[in-house]
Amino acid sequence: MTDVVTYTRHDEIAVLRIANPPVNALSQAVRQGLSDAMDRAESEDGVKAVLIVGDGRAFIAGADIKEFGKPPMEPNLPDLCTRIEASPLLVVASMHGVSLGGGLEVALGCHYRVAQPSARVGLPEVHLGILPGAGGTQRLPRLTGAEKAVEAITTGRHIKAPEALELGIIDKIEEGDPETVGLAYARDLLASNAARRPVSEMPNPQGIDWDATHAALLKKGRGQLSPATAMRAVQAASELPFDEGIKRERELFMDLMNTDQRKGLIHAFFNERAVSNLPELKGVAPRALQSIGVIGGGTMGAGIATACLLSGLNVVMIEMSDDAAEAAKGRIGGNLAGALKRGKINQEKHDNLLSIALEVSQNYDSLKDVDLVIEAVFEEMDVKKQVFAKLDAACKPGCVLASNTSYLDVNEIAASTTRPADVIGLHFFSPAHVMKLLEVVVADQTAPDVVATGFALGKMLGKVAVRAGVCDGFIGNRILSTYRAVAGHMVLDGASPFQIDDALTDFGFAMGPFAVADLAGLDIGWATRKRKAATRHPDERVPTYIDRLCEQGHYGQKTGEGYYIYEKGKRGGTPNPKILELIKDEQQTLGITPRDFSDAEIVRRYMCAMVNEAAEVVGEGIARRPLDVDMTLLFGYGFPRYWGGPMKWADIQGLDAVLADIERYGQEDAWFWQPAPLLKQLVAEGRTFDDLNKEAA
Ligand code: CAA
């Protein structure tokens, strides 16, 4: 036996209790402990049944993800599940909290399953780039049928106990202490002479249209392999005897285990959690947060207010006029109506949030009691400074004063107040009640407990909060402007915007940069180009063909025409032929002979530009660790999760190869392609970005 599995006897029943905090992951010690305890139960006189329960907050949250990628250690999980199922004793699982992945597979290896009403089960392995590899793809469909099993396994969703009962995944729901409930159930089963009931001996599920389902899953996964591959394993459950199905599951599991996607997704899993663990905040208590002020009720301010209200915070919103206040209320009301429709809140909560928790005022005095205030007004330094002067006068001592600026200098904003230590940047992404990313921008004088409060707010709002330093665009928008620029260069040199968008969506991005520009509004980039024209370096290449379209009043989706033409009522647009003409004119003016680009070259240049700028951002300390960049791009910029982020992508490609390409591109455009010193240093030292993450942990 091991420390993490204890064995106790209750008359004819042996209780195996797993205690491996925080979530009872199936580490080698747990697997060994369960296997040894099964041996003991079978060897002791008088034992007729085994009950498996979990200690603490969950039954079992799955295989121990920290062991992935390391040499396998016996006993392996599939053998353990088979061993449990093959026991001559009656084996019962009593499940509470979550039973996920290998945790559900252990339960499926048991002969009977009882769960708490609040329990959740699921096979979320596809989100880690793998598939349920301990019989889950073979046993689940024998209980639920193929279609339901494909849905559960390819979405990886958590299934609540009542639905799990309906689907046949569990046999009974009973509230109470899991061990007491499990013992009572086992006793009833013994009393009624219930037979062992191995799922592997149940009939094969009927087939579905496998090829059509596979094609649909590939399309939906935008390049992610695990859902479609997991479906093939369920197909084997339908078509092969159990033992052969298990072999097929293992082959497909190993195929996925060896993919870069598995590495990327597991990097994302751990770093999504690690990103808010800042060594500098250890032992620093955040300030209390109950009520939040929001200045400005436009799309962004209304989204921030909505996110705060939905998280149980009171909101005081400041607007400038009756009309603006009404419009802001309308926007927040619209957002909350959406939450009501999606079942996130009920009607009573919805009404209370609007009538009690929200106050819209035109008077800064209404902010006197708020704990933190977020300014979301027009993106201009003078306007921000005026707002911060008013906040400085109106807010109580200790109130955190935050700006939602997306690129302005937070030091300059802080310096315009008498309390720069209380000033911070909190950069939300639109729509702020939906997007997961929050950049916590730390200025030179920001107090540590103000930083901790920024992270505490992020946690309350369910955001992924990332620490950023002050520079133009912080982490995300600064890197965006560089990879956006290289897309522009490729257009000038011969790749069409449509080919670039297609190549990047094939790579896994939610949208290509030109479709994004249409969505954001082409007038935004146009204004920035005009603003920056006077100070631009003479060697900087900036395409201006799209300005011709803006001059005609076409700003993208909102006007129906941009890079694409949008028809009312239709999703997405069709390529705008005018664009190709405008590009041709500019190429002629500049004397450029267009050339062909392969999709692979487009992706490589785009990614190299992203990685190089990201390495600058880390090298300058704007991002403390490469993982901060990865999480910023994943949660704010539609970067494909299965690549783990640009830094993980670069590690997987090999930093030396990435640097070599950057140097090669630099022969065409030495101003743009200057290799980042940090990238050069890591290559010279034979280290990776992930090495830096580990050193910072
Ligand atoms: N292995 C190792 N560590 C795990 C883990 C696992 N399966 N699941 C969670 N943890 C760790 C987390 O990394 C976190 O560690 P830190 O505190 O050091 O950051 C800690 O447990 C708590 O996790 P959360 O912060 O996520 O806590 P939560 O309450 O918000 O969520 C959870 C709990 C729902 C279990 C969530 O952690 C989760 O979804 N875990 C992953 C579950 C999963 O994917 N299981 C399948 C594993 S693959 C498998 O089983 C393969 C197979 O068939 C062979």
TrEMBL record:
Ranges where the 3-hydroxyacyl-CoA dehydrogenase C-terminal domain occurs: 473-566, 602-687
Protein name: Enoyl-CoA hydratase/isomerase family protein
Compartments where found: Peroxisome
Similarity comment: family membership: Belongs to the enoyl-CoA hydratase/isomerase family. In the N-terminal section; belongs to the enoyl-CoA hydratase/isomerase family.
Keyword Disulfide bond (UniProt): no
Organism encoding this protein: Sulfitobacter aestuariivivens
Domain of life: Bacteria
UniProt catalytic activity: a (3S)-3-hydroxyacyl-CoA + NAD(+) = a 3-oxoacyl-CoA + NADH + H(+)
Pathway: Lipid metabolism; fatty acid beta-oxidation
